[in-house]
Queue: 4 jobs
Job 1
Amino acid sequence: MSGIILFDGVCNFCDQSVQFILKRDEKHYFQFASLQSDAGKKLIKDFDVPTDIDSMILIENNKYYSKSSAALRICKNLKGLWRLLYGFLIVPKPIRDFAYGIIAKNRYKWFGKRDSCMLPPPEVRDRFL
């Protein structure tokens, strides 16, 4: 069993988040696809993910998660103390998603945007769909 993370491939913050996850995913639990890729578009369609969601998406156990729920569920599978953040799922979703939304809405302004999706390094390329 594994999880698939769909991310905004032109967002610098999202790219750094993927790099962060790759370094802490010792069990290689996650695979990745940009939202702009053919694989990402197919997964969005297959899992009936609304196209207006401004969020990283986690697909796990034949279900998709977005916003803070995706981020916290991702943390559950990372090495170190990061997995403790999963406990924040007890915070009501509207509160968690409000904080997530502030970052999501400002990510291009604060962190920048690139013209195209990043090319994964050769050592992790097989984890990208």
Job 2
Amino acid sequence: MEREWIAHFHDDEKNFVDKAWDWIQRAENHTVKRTDFLDPRQCFIVESLANRADVNLHMDGGYPGAERKRAVFAPAYRDPAEEDMGIAVLEITSPDSRFAELEHGDFMGSILGLGVKRDKVGDIHVLGDACHILVAKEIADYFSMNLFQVHRLGVSTSILPAAELRTAETKLEEVSLSVASLRLDGIASDVWHLSRAKILIPIKAGRCRLNWKVEEDPSAPLKDGDVVSLQGFGRFKVLEIEGTTKKGRVRVKIGRYL
């Protein structure tokens, strides 16, 4: 790949870009490649690269509107949508009444605690009476044999066909802020109740992502629809920039992911 093209990506993305370009080159040489689950930023990258080559690309996360998806690269003469995407539904249940209090992070922590890489796991749907998780089919049985607890609660697991997936609506806690500007550090410090000095540390350390891309500039301006995540704190979405007060401050409505 031309070095001028790869220069458009953040330093921590370049290994993935090189890997994705290798997948594309293999597809050009008549090899079908199915990836693990990709986050939205990675999906954008592979789509951008595929558009520069003579290959076909199909992405699917197990249901319409999925955030995390697997991709299939195929030679130009093959339809990748006909390939098996290798996605299974892991259902987790428990008779314990406290199960309904578990959150997304509890399930993710238990999954990663089994030594499973994040890229083998798609979207997680916490439903109250159950949790449905999209997983790579090739390791689905591993969960059935090894996942017995979530946040110290005993659980049972089963593998379901994709047609039995139940999805949960994304839950956001709405917060109205009055900020001096739309700078990333200012809004993030208010959302997570951190001082401006403390919010700068994780941002400058590369632990902040803006629309799934690493953002190390504290002064980066936010706009409607932007999604910000901070490792160890969670993520939020800019729902609406509502206007300016008489004192020149900006009213912003934020949705904090629960």
Job 3
Amino acid sequence: MSVLVVGAALLALILVLLALFAPALAPFEPDQQKLLARLRPPIGFERANPAHWFGTDQLGRDLLSRCLHGLRLTLALALFGTLIGLSLGVSLGLVAGLFGGWADALIMGFVDIMLSLPFTLVALLVIALAGTDVAVLICVLGIAYWAHFARLVRAQVLGLRELPFVEAARAAGATRWHIATVHMIPNIVSPIVVMASLNFSNLILLESALSFLGLGVQPPTATLGSMVGQGRDYMASASWIVAVPALLIVFVSLAAMLLGDFLRDHLDVRLRER
């Protein structure tokens, strides 16, 4: 196991633990305002307040506390969005690949339509019509990349269904459900895991983009993306307001991608047999 993988695993573990225990670790309430302590830089800079390790924002709120709570909500949004997209895309991709015919044409036609649309505009339309509730945002994130999963799984299934072991199972009377769960899914875990890890990072960036436009989780609730969006007007005078949550986004995305590569190498049945 390489040092890079161990470092990514430790980073991911630390981030997850910070998110889980955010209420206990945060030194202040995330929405607590102290206008007399506004725009204080992190420790090590002039005018820093020792009580605020990462500094304060434009309303005097502690950035460390807001980052911890924001990390928790950001990871939850990305996780639920990834699970929804994965479940929907894998299910439809299996149906399209195994059944073929009109089911394949219908599903892949819808996939092509989804992939041809700029999803940011679709998200803006859905949020404008349904509101900015957290449940709506999770649904928007969930449908963001399901088409990528569906196309990937369909391509993998089309390549597997003509192989001898699948034809033998079909000749033995195995149902399509049995073929899908026993013979198909174990052999396509690797690309699914890699795509899920990449989409996890992409969903964090999508949430950040929506929050930057004011269409994500609404203030005063903190997510990493909303903190970047709210601090953009202060980048010239108080860059730490944007830099701290932005660095957390980079760390989360990097850890997710590196762990995805690690899981691919260890979950791929074909790689293990070599």
Job 4
Amino acid sequence: MINIGKTNQLKVVKVQGPNIYLGLPGSPMVLLADKKPPKPFQLGDSVTAFVYIDGEGHLAATLQKPLAEVGDIAWLKVAAVNYYGAFLDWGVPKDLLVPFNEQTSEMQAGRSYLVKLVEDAKGRIVASAKLDRFLSDAGPDFKTGQQVSLMIAEHTELGAKAIVDNTHWGMLYQNEILRPLRKGQKLTGYIKKVRDDHKLDLTLHEPGYGKIEPLADKILAELDKSGGMLALGDKSPPEAIYAAFGVSKKAFKQAIGALYKKQLIVIEEHSIRRI
């Protein structure tokens, strides 16, 4: 079965002049829309191709990798706007339609928006900016410390609202953000807390002590490379610690505390020294 809006592993079933047709047993043939395939194809060749519906309503395939597939939420740029709606560049020959009734505000050419790719009632691939229809505020099945994929959705006074695993909303609070984050950015995060109302508090730093030992080893290695002293200590700003080691100040203090207990370092306000 060929999955529309998805990448498929297909076979070359017909070659007619410059036209190459792909398919699977029991499925309709799909024209390869690419004008200049990277190599000549022979009958029976396996081809990895993305299948979509072209402007005339026919199945088509491309070897180009799309920026998103059906079911994904993606940050896409508007290529054009007309009386049907906005058309997004999603990396395939036919632009992706966002009908006006699927926009939260009037989209403008040249700007990018977060959208979810879906199939409409007629089986056409379209996009919707009305993400609240597809994402839940409550995530009771998530666990504290669980690693998740995040996409930054918007900045608020509290911090950054993020999409969790493509299915839920979560919040990164300001004290968890130690570097600039842009809308649409994808990154790995962790569940910091599942609140009583099942809403998700997020962190970009791996919770618990499992990461402290590797971090302590890294700090020792940096001390050895720098002649036994680092200009980071108890009073150093979180931004300086993150720039040096990519961790929160809390994690850094836990790691140097462990080294201090082992009598491997001396901790000062703005530096640490190797013993």
